[in-house]
């Protein structure tokens, strides 16, 4: 049961609320109890002081009348008789801690020390009496023999060298009844509040997590066959709605990746099918006759060789892109002169340009020292140059330039051909895309449609980017921007 988020949230919410309610109830109860006790202490202290004043007054009155026998004791008895409280008891002790007199609250009578101490009188400890004799006043709670608690206030009074301890006791039954009612009220309120919190918290958690349950059920049904389905979004602004949107964007990326993989496999199969079919056809023709002229056999072997080269280029490019997609194509970073690498690339494609009747130009500054993967940078530049030679047409001029900026290097390849059709420009970096597929497949030097995707990946792997700057009837310009730290 605790594996459910709804149950855990409900228990946590109810536990916090229960703790808050307990702390509130305990602190409130303690405060009320202290206030009740303070009120009792104040009333008992006032009674004790009034009793002390009455006792002193009675003593002086007896003395003025010339009564000398047991004057102090008689004054105590007369003072107790003047205080008629139905809920308070007066108790007097001498300086030796012996009981002198006390009042019996039910009958408002006075009982002297010779009479036994009643069962309903609190048993006051000697230490309490001792503390009163050396202090101004003292408060304490004492139980009777029957177990009923009394609150006691004691003060001392001294008259003509004799010290008496005057104690006023009051039963705490009414206060205990009131405090018990408060405890019961708090207990009932705590139980009701906790029950409402548990029920309300569970309903709130279930309602709040209902979108999560719906998303979970929908996500469990999504597979490769139905990646087009998306999670429901009830509220786009809350956290769950944002989570659903994030997951939907992930599904979009997965769907696009699967579509790209499907297209990639279909295009790769299609590209490889043609040279394989040609090779099989030439081989079948060559083997169909027992004797064939050497020239025909040589021609067939030439076709097989050309198509095998095309297959090799396609396979190598596919392996490179597959390793790049999997993050398993490492960069071998070295320091080299970029200007010299560009000159080598021009020399490599010079024969291809001469065959097409084209001229090559190179504009570069002084020596440029660069840190990167020399082999991949070479492949990037050769792809751009061979593309320009293949698709710009005869009698064209192809210019490569290297521009050095404070933080970047820009390698540009420009031709003055007829340009890439506007409809094809958004797709030129897609794999196996060719603006003129018919020419590419019939021409032995036709591309595979993987050169520009590979070139863009190489630029991005070095922290740069490859862009089509322009392509119109005046020509086409590609630019490679690479980070540079002189």
Detail the topology: elements first, then pairings.
Elements: H1 5-64, H2 71-82, E1 89-94, E2 99-104, E3 109-112, H3 126-133, E4 137-143, E5 149-159, E6 162-171, H4 173-208, H5 210-221, H6 239-288, H7 294-325, E7 333-337, H8 338-355, E8 359-363, E9 369-373, H9 374-392, E10 397-404, E11 408-415, H10 437-442, H11 451-461, E12 465-472, E13 475-483
Parallel strand pairs: 8-10
Antiparallel strand pairs: 1-2, 1-6, 2-3, 4-5, 5-6, 7-9, 10-11, 11-13, 12-13
Concise structural overview:
This protein has 486 residues and is of the alpha+beta class.
Please tell me about this protein's structure.
The protein has 486 residues and is an alpha+beta fold. The protein is built from eleven helices and 13 strands. β4 and β5 form a beta hairpin. α1 crosses α2. The chain is rod-shaped.
Structural shape: rod-shaped
The ordered string of helix (H) and strand (E) elements is HHEEEHEEEHHHHEHEEHEEHHEE
Domain count: the total is: 3
Strand content range: 15-25%
Largest sheet: 6 strands, antiparallel
The number of helices is 11
CA-based gyration radius: 53 Å
Number of strands: 13
Low-confidence stretches: 438-445
CATH class of the largest domain: Alpha Beta
The helix fraction, in percent, is: 40-55%
Describe the structure using short key phrases.
single chain; 486 residues; alpha+beta; Helix Hairpins; Heat Shock Protein 90; 3 domains; five-stranded mixed beta sheet; 13 strands
């Amino acid at each position: 049961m605790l594996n459910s988020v709804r149950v855990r949230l409900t228990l946590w919410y109810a536990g916090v609320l229960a703790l808050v309610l307990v702390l509130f109830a305990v602190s409130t109860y303690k405060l009320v109890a202290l206030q009740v006790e303070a009120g009792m202490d104040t009333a008992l202290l006032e009674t004790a002081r009034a009793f002390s004043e009455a006792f002193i007054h009675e003593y002086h009155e007896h003395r003025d009348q010339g009564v000398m026998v047991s004057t102090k004791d008689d004054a105590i008895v007369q003072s107790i008789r003047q205080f008629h409280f139905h809920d308070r008891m007066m108790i007097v002790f001498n300086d030796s801690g012996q009981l002198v007199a006390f009042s019996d609250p039910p009958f408002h009578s006075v009982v002297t020390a010779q009479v036994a101490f009643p069962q309903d009188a609190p048993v006051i400890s000697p230490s309490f009496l001792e503390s009163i004799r050396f202090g101004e006043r003292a408060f304490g709670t004492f139980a009777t023999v029957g177990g009923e608690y009394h609150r006691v206030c004691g003060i001392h009074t001294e008259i003509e060298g004799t010290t008496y301890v005057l104690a006023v006791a009051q039963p705490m039954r009414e206060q205990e009844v009131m405090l018990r009612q408060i405890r019961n009220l708090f207990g009932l309120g705590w139980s009701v509040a906790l029950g409402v919190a548990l029920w309300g918290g569970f309903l709130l958690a279930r309602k709040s997590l209902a979108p999560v349950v719906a998303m979970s059920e929908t996500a469990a049904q999504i597979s490769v066959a139905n990646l087009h389905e998306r999670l429901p979004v009830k509220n786009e602004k809350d956290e769950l709605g944002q989570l659903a949107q994030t997951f939907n964007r992930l599904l979009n990326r997965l769907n696009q990746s699967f579509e790209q993989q499907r297209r990639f496999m279909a295009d790769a199969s299609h590209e490889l099918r043609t040279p394989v079919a040609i090779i099989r056809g030439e081989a079948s023709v060559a083997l169909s006759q027992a004797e064939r002229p050497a020239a025909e056999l040589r021609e067939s072997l030439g076709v097989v060789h050309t198509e095998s080269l095309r297959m090799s280029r396609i396979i190598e490019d596919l392996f490179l892109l597959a390793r790049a997609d999997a993050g398993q194509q490492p960069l071998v970073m070295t320091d080299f002169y970029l200007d010299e690498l560009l000159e080598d690339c021009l020399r490599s494609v010079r024969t291809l340009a001469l065959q097409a009747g084209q001229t090559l130009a190179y504009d570069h500054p002084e020596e440029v020292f660069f840190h990167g993967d020399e082999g991949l940078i070479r492949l990037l530049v050769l792809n751009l140059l061979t593309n320009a030679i293949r698709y710009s047409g005869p009698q064209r001029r192809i210019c490569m330039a290297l521009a050095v900026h404070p933080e970047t290097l820009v390698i540009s390849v420009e031709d003055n051909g007829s340009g890439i059709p506007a409809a094809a420009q958004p797709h030129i970096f897609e794999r196996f895309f060719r603006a003129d597929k018919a020419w590419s497949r019939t021409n032995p030097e036709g591309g595979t449609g993987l050169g520009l995707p590979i070139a863009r990946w190489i630029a991005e792997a070095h922290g740069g980017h490859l862009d089509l700057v322009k392509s119109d009837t005046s020509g086409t310009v590609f630019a490679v921007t690479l980070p540079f730290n002189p």
